[in-house]
């Protein structure tokens, strides 16, 4: 996100363009890629772009919007339009005292848990409301997800970068897991015999040994599946 896009997003909000109108404009741009390409193209003359803007955006009944789009194109900035929309939404939330947060999860939270998280964030940051985005992180184990959450909350760091730099990605590669599972099976003949004799709990020990060998980075569900296939 460039400072230029941030400034345009703030100006768009300050012009009094409603959030509903911005959503309609976003949909129009997304559905008409040729229009977006033409308005962003350095080959198309500014005068032609202005004519297109008059035809397309006049429907919204806002002179401020039309002038904004013309200024944007005159300064060759239409290629930033999606970043501008994002910054508009961010700034609008700030003005309305709405906290924007992202929840990275391994197991989807229940509605009760999600409501509890939102309530906690509102109290912690003194906001009137929370807009919580949900992002699934299959590559992180539940154990490591807790570490990431604590680090992000305490230090406001990029979770993806922290996961990568600290080797916390969960191993979901079946080929890589299979070699470890086969070794665990070979090293624990008694547990294997117990499982084959009908003692279902024995597989829990084998899962634990595999997770230990993988330093907690293996996907437990995939480990369990591989063990049952190999046993």
Describe the structure.
This protein is mainly α and about 230 residues long. It is built from 13 helices and two strands, in the order H-H-H-H-H-H-E-H-E-H-H-H-H-H-H. It has helices spanning about 5-15, 20-30, 35-40, 45-55, 65-75, 80-95, 110-125, 140-155, 160-165, 175-185, 190-195, 200-215, 220-230; strands at about 100-105, 130-135. The chain has a two-stranded parallel ribbon with strand order 1-2. Helix 7 links the parallel strand 1 (about 100-105) and strand 2. The longest helix has 15 residues, at about 80-95.
Keywords:
mainly alpha; 2 strands
How much helix, percentage-wise, in residues? 55-70%
Put simply, the count of helices is 13
Provide the succession of SSEs.
HHHHHHEHEHHHHHH
Beta-strand percentage?
A: 5-15%
Question: Could you give the topology of this structure?
Answer:
Layout: H1 3-14, H2 19-31, H3 33-40, H4 46-57, H5 63-74, H6 81-95, E1 98-105, H7 111-125, E2 129-136, H8 142-155, H9 159-165, H10 174-187, H11 189-196, H12 202-213, H13 220-230
Parallel strand pairs: 1-2
Helix pairs in contact: 1-6, 4-5, 10-12, 10-13, 11-12, 12-13
In short:
With 231 residues, the chain is mainly alpha-helical.
């Amino acid at each position: 996100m460039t400072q230029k896009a941030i400034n345009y997003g703030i100006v768009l909000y300050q012009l009094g363009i409603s959030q509903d109108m911005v959503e309609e404009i976003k949909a129009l741009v997304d559905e008409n890629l040729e229009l977006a390409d033409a308005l962003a193209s350095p080959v198309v003359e500014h005068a032609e772009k202005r004519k297109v803007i008059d035809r397309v955006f006049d429907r919204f009944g806002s002179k401020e919007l039309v002038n904004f789009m013309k200024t944007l194109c005159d300064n060759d900035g239409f290629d930033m339009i999606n970043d501008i929309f994002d910054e508009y939404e961010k700034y609008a939330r700030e003005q309305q005292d709405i906290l924007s947060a992202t929840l990275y999860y391994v197991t989807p939270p229940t509605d009760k848990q999600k409501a509890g998280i939102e309530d906690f964030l509102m109290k912690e940051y003194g906001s009137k409301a929370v807009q919580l985005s949900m992002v699934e992180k299959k590559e992180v184990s539940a154990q490591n997800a807790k570490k990431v959450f604590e680090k992000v909350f305490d230090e406001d760091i990029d979770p993806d970068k922290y996961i990568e730099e600290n080797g916390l990605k969960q191993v979901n590669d079946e080929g890589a897991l299979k070699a470890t599972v086969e070794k665990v099976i070979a090293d624990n003949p008694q547990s294997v015999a117990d499982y084959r004799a009908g003692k279902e709990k024995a597989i829990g020990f084998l899962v634990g040994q595999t997770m230990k060998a993988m330093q907690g980075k293996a996907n437990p569900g995939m480990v369990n599946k591989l063990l049952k296939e190999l046993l």
